[in-house]
Design goal:
five-stranded parallel β-sheet, alpha/beta, iron, 2Fe-2S, globular, single chain, NiRdtase/SiRdtase_haem-b_fer, 31% helix, 821 residues, 18% strand
């Protein structure tokens, strides 16, 4: 992250052509966001975590080398040597090598199922292994460890946190704050084990448990070590540069090493025996090195405030200034509410005039302003406890507010953006939106913790300029939605007319009526049909209106689980009322619990009824999902259902390196989610847009546009070519998304091959697909009609008995395997 920020700032400030920049990274990806790494477990993709795509480096004329590890620095020749044997000259060298996970010397740490939590590759390995286990432990109760614990929760595993110290987050929280945090985490189902010194990881080849120095033991099937970091200083050490006793490349106040042409920034650098493991100080280091290279004002790096605010598994935690009151004598003011899980502590100077630091757990909404008061020595209110308790007894709040901040106050520490810079933008450049502030200053693009203050500054400055700042719902109510919600609650208002009469004007409109209806429903949870005239059409009739004025009936089927009896009811209703019937989502019905000897008999009945194999068991085409398209939907511009059926019947049974899924959407509203499939087709007024190489799953990736506005025949031709080219060139068990990511030239190359026929194999690929289509046969039909094949479906080779080990139990009216509990 710090290396990327250095590149960004140098390119933004240096004149064009002034510097040639070459970047080396040993990982396969460009720089990515380690601060939000745990989001990977809740759906974020590698692409979404990237600081910038590869194309950004090309656009900024930066030579990016991924998968290339520098193994030696030749200071005399001013060269770096890569693991490939290639060497590269430098004039100035910036070491932004970051850190690696610290792994304690524990007996058995090399066992299978033990992981560190540091890179995307680590995370992929954790996700894959988690599918085989039910419990996981995390060594480390600090910031990193609790982030790893969140990942364990996201993977729906039994979670344990092991901490050597007697409290969680010992560097940021005192005992009471830590106890509050612990209570919150335990409510979420995380088991906390404090004062635990792990002596041995047990298990025969793979982890089955952990033994501690106090002779206690914990059974666990997986372990994530997140116990701290160690600077990656080995390159510098081998090159003869000084490193600190506890690790890190020693730098001076200008971030220079012993060699004035070599700088170190970020977690790799050690300044006065201090390694800074947060993003903000790393970005500040990058800024100061850039300033030196372009000969602008250089501000020596003399250390950095390590205050931090984050949300740990849904719990706000903040620590700022001197949190423990250890640097100078102070008087703590503490508020603790064990019922709501809130703990606040501020440390006030002995003369009662300055705020020195504090701790916030459960409610960190005041963090930004308290941090600014600490950093800028702002005067305290007459009653300092107001800072954490708020004004009481009808008094107005005194003191803390953005208006009292000095111009030089640092609002965004990640990007070093001051209050003065933001206010100048608003006042002199006419900026009126938060997004514009982010775009111009980069404030809020790092950890995002400063955004509440940026919002407050914008509102305050606009008001100071005489501009009205009011977020009203519409012209009929001079209130925001949040204010109306409060009014409805406090005044006990139950109807739209009552609210309009007391707090509105006019007769209302299509904006405020549904909004108020939503507020009333959210507040009182009454039947919305009681006030049907203020609902939009869908809510009024409890159904989606479709093309032609008819409505769809969509019963809820939680989890897709449905009994045979309910299936029959759906069929009877559809038949009685002559309804068009369509299965949604993956467009399949799963039938579980068949014995192997029953399969041919089951399939014989299905085939006689017109069904055929869906290939859910094969690395082949699974489904082509579709919406109802122009047949029914009032937004549809093409017949997506007919096209989806044609596409599925065209490619059914097509075997490939991995499973294939497709979709056809009848308009750009994308109800079939075509852009999350291996190939997706989206209707336009002129024809069809074709997207390829997307997938869902644990690492979702959007498909990319291959061609737009083509007719049906052309679309099918390009799908033929794409699929056959993929089948030809992909490695086993490689989804199309991964295949594209690894393919040299990426989408441009695929487009050249498929659309432009740059290899001259287009006709050949089409003929190969035509053969696959012409020779298709249902595998299950073949088995059913072939006695020799059919005879293979039995549990015992030498007997026709059924499997005696199968045991069942009932869940929600259906059978499930007893062993699944």
């Amino acid at each position: 992250m710090v290396g990327y920020k250095f590149c960004e700032k140098l390119r933004a400030q240096a004149t064009e052509g002034e510097f040639e920049i070459t970047v080396f990274g040993e990982e396969p990806w460009p720089a990515y966001d380690r601060v939000h790494l745990s989001a990977y477990f809740s759906g974020s993709t590698a692409d979404e975590l990237m600081m910038a795509p590869r194309s950004w480096y090309d656009e900024n004329n930066i030579d990016l080398h991924t998968n290339e590890m520098i193994v030696k620095i030749d200071r005399d020749a001013k060269k770096v040597i890569a693991h490939t044997g290639h060497d590269y000259h430098y004039d100035k060298l910036v070491l932004a090598t970051g850190s690696a996970a610290f792994v304690p010397p524990i007996d058995g740490v090399d066992k299978k199922g033990v992981f560190v939590y540091r890179t995307l590759e680590d995370l992929d390995a954790i996700i894959n292994y988690s599918k085989k286990v039910k419990s996981a432990a995390v060594i480390g109760g600090g910031l990193l460890g609790l982030e790893a614990a969140k990942a364990v929760i996201d993977m729906e595993l039994e979670a344990h946190v092991i901490e050597f110290a007697p409290r969680l987050m010992p560097r940021q929280l005192d005992s009471a704050g830590s106890a509050t945090l612990q209570s919150k985490l335990e409510e979420l189902g995380i088991n906390i084990h404090l004062s635990k010194n792990t002596k041995k990881i047990t298990g025969n080849g793979k982890i089955t448990g952990m033994s501690f120095a106090d002779n206690t033991h914990l059974n666990t099937e997986m372990l994530v070590i997140s116990a701290g970091i160690k600077p990656r200083d080995e390159l510098a050490k081998d090159a003869g540069l000084t490193t600190a006793p506890r690790g890190g490349i020693v730098v001076n106040e200008f971030l220079q090493t012993d060699d004035t042409d070599i700088y170190a920034i970020g977690e790799a650098a050690s300044y006065q025996n201090m390694v800074y493991g947060l993003v903000a100080p790393g970005y500040e280091m990058a800024t100061q090195v850039v300033n030196q290279l372009i000969n602008t004002e250089v501000k020596p790096f003399t250390g950095f405030d390590m205050s931090t605010k984050l949300k740990l598994i849904g719990v706000d935690v903040g620590s700022f200034g001197d949190p423990f009151g250890e640097i100078e004598p102070s008087k703590p003011i503490v508020y603790e509410n064990k019922n709501s899980g809130i703990y606040k502590r501020i440390n006030v100077s002995m003369d009662g005039k300055r705020l020195l630091g504090g701790i916030l757990v459960g409610d960190a909404s005041a963090y930004n302003i308290l941090l600014q008061m600490t950093q800028n020595n702002m005067p305290l209110p007459p009653e300092p406890e107001d800072l954490i308790l708020g004004a009481r007894g009808g008094k107005e709040a005194v003191g803390a507010g953005v208006e009292s901040l000095p111009e030089e106050a640092q609002v965004c520490s990640c990007e070093n953006v001051t209050k003065g810079a933001i206010c100048s933008l608003i006042e002199n450049d006419g900026v009126t939106k938060v997004d514009e502030i982010k775009s111009c200053t980069k404030a809020g693009t790092g950890c995002g913790g400063c955004m509440p203050m940026v919002n407050d500054l914008l509102k305050h400055q606009l008001k100071a300029m005489g501009k009205t700042v009011k977020n009203v719902i519409c012209e009929h109510f001079d209130y925001s939605r949040q204010e109306l919600l409060d009014i409805v609650k406090i005044k006990g208002i139950k109807t739209y007319n009552e609210l309009l009469d007391q707090f509105g004007q006019g007769d209302g409109c299509e904006v405020c009526k549904p909004a108020v209806a939503s507020i009333l429903a959210s507040t009182w949870n009454e039947l919305i049909t009681k006030q049907d005239t203020i609902q939009d059409t869908n809510d009024r009739y409890l159904a989606n209106i479709q093309k032609g004025g008819t409505y769809s009936v969509v019963p809820r089927i939680p989890g897709g689980e449905i009994t045979p009896e309910k299936l029959i009811v759906l069929g009877d209703v559809a038949k009685r009322y002559n309804l068009y019937t369509k299965i949604t989502g993956g467009q399949r019905i799963d039938l579980f619990g068949a014995r192997v000897d029953q399969l041919p008999d089951i399939w014989e009945e299905l085939i006689n009824a017109g069904f055929e194999s869906g290939h859910a068991y094969g690395k082949s085409l699974r489904t082509i999902k579709s919406c109802v398209g122009s047949t029914w939907c009032r937004y549809g511009v093409q017949d997506s259902v007919s096209f989806a059926i044609e596409v599925e019947e065209r490619y059914r049974g097509l075997r490939s390196p991995h499973k294939l899924k497709g979709a056809v959407s009848g308009c750009i509203r994308e109800c079939a989610e075509a852009q999350s499939k291996d190939f997706g087709i989206i209707a336009t007024e002129k024809g069809w847009n074709l997207y390829i190489c997307g997938n869902g799953g644990s690492k979702p990736q959007h498909a990319q546009l291959l061609i737009n506005d083509v007719d049906r025949e052309t679309c099918l031709k390009y799908i033929d070519r794409f699929l056959m080219f993929y089948i030809r060139t992909a490695e086993p068990l490689t989804r199309t998304a991964t295949w594209l990511n690894k393919l040299e030239g990426g989408m441009d190359y695929v487009r050249d091959v498929v659309v432009n026929d740059s290899l001259g194999i287009g006709e050949e690929l089409e003929k190969e697909m035509a053969f696959m289509i012409d020779t298709y046969a249902c595998e299950w039909k073949e088995v059913v009609n072939n006695p020799e094949l059919r005879a293979k479906f039995k549990h015992f080779v030498n007997a026709n008995e059924e499997d005696p080990s199968l045991k069942w139990k009932e869940m929600r009216g259906q059978k499930i395997p007893a062993s699944w509990g």
